[in-house]
Amino acid sequence: MFNYECSITNFRFIDSSIHQKFKPMKKLIFLYILFINLMVFGQDDLFQQANNAYKKGDYQTAVSLYEKAMQSDKASGELYFNLGNTYYKLNQIAPSIYYYEKAKQLLPADEDVQYNLSLANQMKLDKIEQVPENLLLRWKKQVNRLFSYDIWAWISIVSAFLGLLAFGSFLFTKNANVKRLTFAGMFIALFLLLFAWYNAGYSKKLAGEKYAIVFSPQVDLMTEPNLTSDKVLTLHEGAKVKLIREDGDWELVKLPDGKKAWLPKADIRILD
């Protein structure tokens, strides 16, 4: 198992001799920064203690310390990854996969996270075949992942500005060569605008998709949101499902093979 360790940069407060009336404010700032330092070092201390417990093989203590560090609003991909490692050592499939998935959200390109998640997934009882994506859909996702939603949005804005600039130049220039160039520029800018605008929307759609991990040892999926309906199949801990919509205490979920069914909310933990 791989193990991350983080270093925290110290905050420093330099007391300069400015006008006397600012001294009370300086004291408040000093106390505030001191408080922030204590919080940061407290979290870092917990993280290091958890790492040390993990190295010693005291995994229960490591879990407790990692979760305390996580509650201090200083959660990170490294912390989630280490917590996933610890649960993996304890042979607890669902929380191990859950925290590896959380780490993957923050560290999508990390090979260690991907590898350890694949190892944890091999421990699942359910082997559900993924619906194969067609070539066009795979290409669309690969292109979309080149940039984040914000970058795609900025490309749209810049393309619109350049298109207007080219249009204005086309209207007011008398040079034939410049007219041809600006005319072509308008269409290129329009294409980039539409392409980036579409990808921004698609990126937002993908970001809005929600998934969950089954935490119960096993759960029956039903055709309707009640226990009297027909059972579709049984899932076991560690299974990952896509959330479609909720109805009271039930969630309609979609499985990797495309099947849809209902299960109780109490049996899953959402990857938020």
Write the layout of secondary structure elements.
Layout: H1 23-55, H2 59-70, H3 77-89, H4 93-106, H5 111-121, H6 135-144, H7 149-172, H8 176-208, E1 210-214, E2 218-222, E3 231-236, E4 240-247, E5 250-254, E6 260-264, E7 268-271
Helix pairs in contact: 1-2, 2-3, 3-4, 4-5, 7-8
- Quickly give the structural class: alpha+beta
Number of strands: 7
Q: Report the CATH architecture of the largest domain.
A: Alpha Horseshoe
How far the N terminus sits from the C terminus, by CA atoms, comes to 25 Å
Helix residue percentage: 55-70%
What can you tell me about this protein's structure?
This protein is an alpha+beta fold and 272 residues long. The chain has 3 domains: 20-121, Serine Threonine Protein Phosphatase 5, Tetratricopeptide repeat (Alpha Horseshoe), CATH 1.25.40.10; 135-208; 210-271, SH3 type barrels, CATH 2.30.30. It is built from 8 helices and 7 strands. It has helices at 23-55, 59-70, 77-89, 93-106, 111-121, 135-144, 149-172, 176-208, and strands spanning 210-214, 218-222, 231-236, 240-247, 250-254, 260-264, 268-271. The strands form 2 sheets. It has a 5-stranded antiparallel β-sheet with strand order 6-5-4-1-7. A two-stranded antiparallel sheet has the order 2-3. A hairpin with a 5-residue loop joins strand 5 and strand 6 (260-264). Helix 1 (23-55) packs antiparallel against helix 2 and helix 7 runs antiparallel to helix 8. The protein is extended. The two termini are 25 Å apart.
